[in-house]
Automatic annotation (TrEMBL):
GO terms for molecular function: 4 iron, 4 sulfur cluster binding; metal ion binding; ribonucleoside-diphosphate reductase activity, thioredoxin disulfide as acceptor. Keywords: 4Fe-4S, Iron, Iron-sulfur, Metal-binding, S-adenosyl-L-methionine. InterPro entries: Aldolase_TIM (IPR013785), Organic_radical-activating (IPR034457), rSAM (IPR007197), rSAM_sf (IPR058240). Its cofactor is [4Fe-4S] cluster. It comes from Maribacter caenipelagi. This is Anaerobic ribonucleoside-triphosphate reductase activating protein. Pfam families: Fer4_12.
Length: 209
């Protein structure tokens, strides 16, 4: 089976407790206004065999404190997501999955009920909402502890105050950020301007749902 991946990285320190493997899936049907990951919307690109991804993950899994799967929209590739989570579950580490679908839409799915996912963050990003909670882009989003492990690992973490924290990765051609920026990309682009750096980014400022 193939899977469409935007990016895979280890360690990520801003999307859950500890040093985590971050997996961003490619493709999203939801198109929230203000999305900061607009580069992950397009479908039918970045296709890799799931077995190749597993080989990459196998190197990191013994060292990681958990896994965060985001996107894109992970549930837009439900079969590949299922196989990926089935593989990851043999490693007994905690797994956080983001989805822009409502919990009402997701709650009957086998993947939400079978214990593969420890913590699910659901609901679309809403740029008109306040942003006061850790791991959430907007306060309408919901955290669901789907297993006792998820509650044990995340409950205290989520009670801590929201902080400005981002992982920054610099390659020869790009700078990319992991984490949930406060106030979208506005503060970051302004900070760049204040230092004579013009930052382009993929936040969806014009497209609507
Ligand atoms: S924030 Fe919304 S539009 Fe952006 S990737 Fe997530 S679900 Fe898709």
């Amino acid at each position: 089976m193939d899977i469409h991946i935007s990016r895979v990285h280890f360690p990520v320190t801003t999307l859950g407790p500890g040093k985590r493997i971050g997996i961003w899936l490619q493709g999203c049907t939801i198109h929230c206004k203000g999305c900061i990951s607009m580069d992950t919307w397009q479908f039918n690109i970045n296709k890799v065999p799931l077995n190749d991804l597993k080989q990459v993950l196998e190197v990191w899994l013994p060292q990681c404190d958990g896994i965060t799967i985001s996107g894109g929209e992970p549930f837009d590739q439900e079969n590949a997501l299922f196989e990926l989570l089935e593989f990851l579950n043999s490693y007994k580490t905690n797994i956080l999955v983001y989805s822009g679908f409502s919990f009402e839409t997701l709650k009957e799915k086998e993947l939400v009920q079978n214990g593969f996912i420890d913590v699910l963050i659901s609901e679309p990003y809403n740029h008109t909402e306040t942003q006061t909670k850790r791991l959430l882009g907007s306060d309408n989003q919901q955290v669901h502890f789907l297993t006792p492990l998820g509650k044990r690992e995340f409950a205290t973490y989520l009670e801590q105050p929201l902080e400005k924290e981002l992982d920054i990765h610099i390659t020869e051609e790009t700078v990319w950020l992991a984490g949930i920026p406060i106030n979208g990309m506005k503060e970051i682009t302004q900070a760049g301007k204040d230092n004579n750096v013009d930052l382009s980014h993929s936040q969806a400022v014009t497209k609507t749902k």
